Each structure stands twice: as structure tokens, then as C-alpha cells.
Amino acid sequence: xxxxxxxxxxxxxxxxxxxxxxxxxxxxxxxxxxxxxxxxxxxxxxxxxxxxxxxxxxxxxxxxxxxxxxxxxxxxxxxxxxxxxxxxxxxxxxxxxxxxxxxxxxxxxxxxxxxxxxxxxxxxxxxxxxxxxxxxxxxxxxxxxxxxxxxxxxxxxxxxxxxxxxxxxxxxxxxxxxxxxxxxxxxxxxxxxxxxxxxxxxxxxxxxxxxxxxxxxxxxxxxxxxxxxxxxxxxxxxxxxxxxxxxxxxxxxxxxxxxxxxxxxxxxxxxxxxxxxxxxxxxxxxxxxxxxxxxxxxxxxxxx
Amino acid sequence: xxxxxxxxxxxxxxxxxxxxxxxxxxxxxxxxxxxxxxxxxxxxxxxxxxxxxxxxxxxxxxxxxxxxxxxxxxxxxxxxxxxxxxxxxxxxxxxxxxxxxxxxxxxxxxxxxxxxxxxxxxxxxxxxxxxxxxxxxxxxxxxxxxxxxxxxxxxxxxxxxxxxxxxxxxxxxxxxxxxxxxxxxxxxxxxxxxxxxxxxxxxxxxxxxxxxxxxxxxxxxxxxxxxxxxxxxxxxxxxxxxxxxxxxx
Lengths: 304, 249
Hints:
The complex is a heterodimer. Chain A is mainly alpha-helical. Chain A is built from seven helices and five strands; from the N terminus they run βαβββααβαααα. Chain B is built from eight helices and no strands.
């Protein structure tokens, strides 16, 4: 958004069929698509100033700071893809890729290991946990999440899939390797790690449900999330994005369970990204709500 | 991509028409930052000059490049490693370059110096080493003196000209030197198995330095043209005052 768009078009209303003062930006976008079919509404960014912020779909024309003629600037956001499509693709990959390594499909490890099975219990447990994690994510995408934005730029799907699929393959390779070394502290370590993983998965799911209940179907309203009767949601007292906190916890649990450095590195990468998102979300909350609870930190209680 | 030029300048102007109003254009640099950056850039210019002179004297006295790396290695390591500070400059905002660009630039240099020429002794007398050393030296002297003069608000045109023209030759020369050196190092890395971890181990990870180097060499293919064409665009903007409208991605 910092660079000059090659298609920054000034469009004044007399050129178009009459636009009613009470028209919403969404309706204007639909009108624009009729005369420029290659730019469907999701690709359009309309603003009052070439360098200004995008107007929201719900904004009403007469409520904007315009006179009798409104000049709107258009920027092409590029090919768009729906969030649901992106999520489904980026999560299905790891689910299947991990299983390829788990079942030791040919050409990954030496031929004498083809379709053999690990003799370590933790390896089977890890497969169950990893698969459960991504099945949960897929189901949440289909049935739980309510998205603020419908779409994102198309190039994101390549970037995101490379990240998820690449890391999944890298982790799965070592965990399911014939030369895999089980955790140093044995069953004790695995049990503790499994407990952490399960608790954090439940926690993460609870937060997703709580966030879903904050927002009625089809709406884009934003409200401050608060703890509910579910004890897992009490983390809202201390952080703005407990879903990320729990997600971190799950991966830490998985890393301890498998004692696999690539898993730890994946957790670190995820932590960095989620912290950036959490800080951004926290800042938006603070900006939007005057009465935002002051004790809350973005992602780690008291610290970050 | 050790041999690459970064965007922006150290608290000075890089745009042609804005030379005069340079320091105030993007930010008001405090006196302490200006003093430090001026000292830093003068010191680096001097360091690379010393390196250049030592290299020339060695060749004039010995008539061969064999032993040249050994004679300059301490100075090279000192000044190239000191350049890590440039990442800090970007982090604290006294230099307008992005941390990522500066990070990639310096990291690739550190990689060449410490992980290739320092660690793989048999290749130190390769001709390709001299190739990239010459390219780096000329580039750095030009670059640091450019920054120094910009900070002092007195940039001679020929320095600006040098900065935006020398790279046209030096950049490919430097890349060639680096790639040839890494290539020469490959057999030694494979034989010694250095910097590698094999399975089984208790952290369940493996790393093969030999394959890592192959991937590094391959990464030059997408990266080098991007950086080279970026510099060419900068050159057109700065030297010829072209207004280039960036494509909206």
C-alpha cells in the first residue's frame, strides 16, 4: 500500500448511473464491476484519497465527508482468493504429508524400510496428535470461524502452503525416521508433554468457540472478548489473544513429546508470527475500545 | 549474495534532486547519531582502503596471489565483522534501510568470510578468492565514502557516479568469485564432513553442510538478477532523474 498503484483511477459519479446518497460502498463496488467486469468487488479498494485508507463495504455514501459530487479513488488489490480456501488448502497438506512419512512410503527412507512401522510408542502418539491438530483446524475452518475479510491476495496461498507443507515434511521426516531417538526421560516426558498438548488444544478450541459466540452469523461486528463459564477462557483476563497462547503451548508440548529440534524450530517460527499478529490485534483493540481491560498483554501473561 | 548493494544511505541523500535538503528529507538525525555514523563510515572507508593497499603491495612484492588471503585475513575479518553494526543502525532507525535488506547483505558477507574462506583452508589460494576480494574492496570503499560525504553534506559527483556505476561490473565479478570459491570448496567439505550432524542423535535433526552449500549456490540464481535490476533501477532514478512508478503488486 505504500507504492503508487498503476491503476489509481479517479471516478466521479456523473460518469455512472445515478448513485443514491444512501448507497453503501458495497453497492457502489457492484456497480463498478458491471462496467469493469475484470475487477470483481473483492479486488476493489475504494478510498476518498489516493493515499488514504480503504473505505469499508458497510460505509454509506452520504455519511462520508463528501460534497454533492464524490470523488472516489480505485486501487486494484490483485487476484483474490477466499480465506476458507486458503485455510483448507494449507491445513490439508500437512495432514497428508505427515502420513506419507508415518507410513514410510517408498523413496523417503531406504528401501528396506518401505511401509515398515516404528517400534516406538511415542511415534504413533505423535502421528495421532499431529493429525488430530490439523483435523481440528479443518473442522474449525468449516464450522467455527467467522471471518472479517472474505478474501486475501492470491499470492498468499503459495507463501502459506510452502510454510505449512514445508515444515510438516521437515518435522515428519525426523519423527518417523528409522533412526529416530525417543525422548531422554522416556514415558514420563511423553506423558507430561501429552497432557500439555491436550490441555492447550482444548483451550485453543474453547477460545475459538468463545470468539465465534461474540459475533452473530454474517456480521462483522467487533466486541471485547471476556471470560465465559468455560475455565479455559479465563485466560482472557490476562491476554488479548489466548488462542495464540494455547497454540504455542500445543506446539511446545509436541516438541517436548517428540524431542525433535525441527519441531522446536517450527514452534519458534510460529511464535514469532503469532506474536506479531497478537500485538497488532491488541493495538486494534486498544484503539477501538476506550474501556479495554488494562491488565491484558497481547500473547503472554504479564510479559509480551 | 555477499556482493550486493543496499537501498538507502546512512543518514544522507541518495536521490539526485534531493541532495541539498538531504538530511532533513527523511528524518532529523540527532547530533550523536550523525557523529557516530560519520565516525563509523570514515573508519570503514579507511579500513577497506588499508585492505586494498595491502593487497596491492603484496602482489607487487610477491608477484603472486598465493598467500595473499593469509596476509590480509585478520584485517578482512575485523572490518567485515564490524559491519554487523549496520544491522543495528537499521534496527534503531538511524539508517533508513530495512533491517531485512541490511541483514541479508551482511550475513552473506559473514558467511563467505567465516564459513567458507576461514574454515576451508585449502581454498584460500584460489584465484576466485582474489576475484571477490577485489570486487568487495572497490565496492566498499566507494560505498562508505559515499555515505561519509553524504553525512558531511558535501558529496562530490564522481563518488555518486562511482557508486551507481561501478556495481555494473563489480557485482557480477563479485558473484562469480564467490560462486567459484564455494564450488572449489565442495570436495573438501564432502571429504571432511564438516559442520554436519548425522542421525541418530538425541535432538532428532540432521544437517549436511555439503548440500547446504549446493542450495546456497542455487539460491544465487533467483536472488542475483533481482538485486542487480534493483540497483539498475536505483541508478536510473538517481543519476538520470527518471521517475519510476513501481508496479502495484
